[in-house]
Structure formats: structure tokens, C-alpha cells
Predict the 3D structure of the following.
Amino acid sequence: MQDKINQYISEINAFTPASSEELETYRIKFLGTKGIIKDLFDEFKTVSAEEKRVLGKVLNEFKKLAEEKHQSYKEQFESGAELTSSTFDLTLPGEGFEIGSRHPLSLVRKEIIEIFKKLGFNVAEGPEIEDDWHNFSALNFPEEHPARDMQDTFFIKKDAENGDIALRTHTSSVQVRMMENGKPPFRAIMPGRVYRNEAISARAHCFFHQVEGLYVDENVSFADLKQTLFYFVQELYGEGTKVRFRPSYFPFTEPSAEMDISCSICKGSGCQMCKGSGWVEILGCGMVDPNVLENCGIDSSKYTGFAFGMGIERITNLKYQIKDLRLFSENDIRFLKQFQSEIL
Ligand code: PHE
């Protein structure tokens, strides 16, 4: 009897059911009402008392082993986990995973950069934490002058002697760094994040993104500025988009202007986006003030230049008709999912 049991033990140890049907066959064979274990217990009744002492323990352990094996596979099959190689079907299709999409601001920034690259503009970057000189003073904002209030500033350190440290309010600071560190001609755009101390609403945020541009060389005129921006708008919004320039004021440009385009949504006939006027403002621009050139060590009697600056959010709003600025920074997947990247 002991030999028989040993044989069954090795049989059970070697057994790996590939399906619940195989497991059921095993159960009937060993644990069923007419199964091997039942037979062994019947046989046990017939052996001598001496043998019973030894065999009783062996038989009980064998029964336990058979039951445990059954139980563990039963749980496995019930939970749907099929671990054996014979049930792993390599021909089943894999599970697809979703690919993310580009943020709309990244898409539009890239588009703007591509257009200016075609005109020979480089891309320049600078720090987001700036000193007073690069963000204000070099750009012809006199100290204590109300023009500084045009841009509500987040100050990091107030230091009357060495100059304040602040989060940059525009990427014009990058233009200053560029002119200080190089020699004309300069032809570059400066994309980047800027910060202003404004209450967050559908129309304003405490940070946004800009692309500013600078062109400094001999004989650069307002006509060059108009032609460059006209080309840009035709590329971005399509041929036939009209532009108009309105006189404006910036401390660092003279003369200064704001540029409107014919509304890209209603094509000028008047809609909600352009508040019925047919025109929308998209950027500020002007001829670089000679004071700024001199502050950066450039001879203003020899060189002239133009500069412009636009908010990427504004351009994106017009392109995709987005009415609430907050959507750009809330990371709502339902919003972000809608922008399929044409340019990767
Ligand atoms: N720096 C200006 C702003 O942030 C934009 C601008 C740039 C205007 C260059 C004119 C020329 O509002």
C-alpha cells in the first residue's frame, strides 16, 4: 500500500492541468466518491493494527496533498489566470495603447517658429527669472515710470541698490541679452513663458506664452516690419487675410503699433470672436527705440530695427475658437485629446 501511495504522490506532483476539464478529471480520479483515495481508505480498514499506525499518517498526508493541489488550480482557473504555456495564445491580438497628443500651445508655437524660420529668423531663449535691467531698464522703462505698471509684475526680490529680481513679464528681455552679447545683424524670434500678476479668469492668467521677434540691421524700415508680419499672417491664417496697423505705445519702440487681422472666423463680416467688428488684435510691434539700441551697445546712428510680440494663447484661441484661457493649464484630458498633432 505504501508503494502505491508513493507512486500516486509522484503522479500528483508531476500533474499540471491545462484546463478546468483536466482538473475535473483529476478530481474524479483521486477525490471522487469512487476515486483512488476512497479505495485506499477502504483498503486501510483491512490492514493490521500495527500497519495502521504508520499508514494512517501517510494516507492522511496523501489526501491533504491531493486536495491542496485541486484547490490551488481551481482558484487559478476561476480567477481566469492561465499560466501554463499550453494555454498562452500568442496569436491573440495585443491590447492597444493610446498615444498622447501635443498640447495646442505647443502645436501653434511650432507653427509660428516654422514660418519665421523660412524668413531666416533664428530661435533664441533666455531665463524666466530676470533682473530689472533686462526686463525693464534696458528697454527704456524709466524708473518709477508708470509704464512699468503696464505689466503687473511678480517680484522675487526687491533690491533698490542692485535692481529687483522678478519673473519676466515679456520675452523682450531675451532681445536685450541677445543684443548685449552679439553684433548686428540680428534676426531672431524668442518663444517663451512669461508671468504677470493678474487675477485668473477666462480672459487673463498669471502666466502665458509669447513669441517676440527682433530684426536689427542697417536700413531696416517700418516697411520691412509690415511686409514680414503680412507674410506671417498669410502663412498662419491663409492667403487673403487682411492686416491693419493702429498707432500704439510701448516704451521700447518708436513708433509703435498694434496689428489687427481680419477675423479668421467670420472673415470680417462680424461675429462673437471679433465682437462684431470684423477685426481682431494679435500683436504689438514697432521700430526699436534708439535708446534701447544704445543701452545694448549698438550704434543707433548706423543700425535700425523692428520688434514685435504676440501671445501664443491669443493666436491659439483664434485658431481653435477656444473661449476660456484656463483650459490651457488645467490638463483636462477631454480638452487635450481633441488636438491631433499634424506636426510631430
Ligand atoms: N513686449 C510687448 C508685450 O509683452 C510686446 C511687444 C514686443 C510690443 C515688441 C512691441 C514690440 O506686451
Notes: Residues 290 and 301 are 8 Å apart (CA to CA).
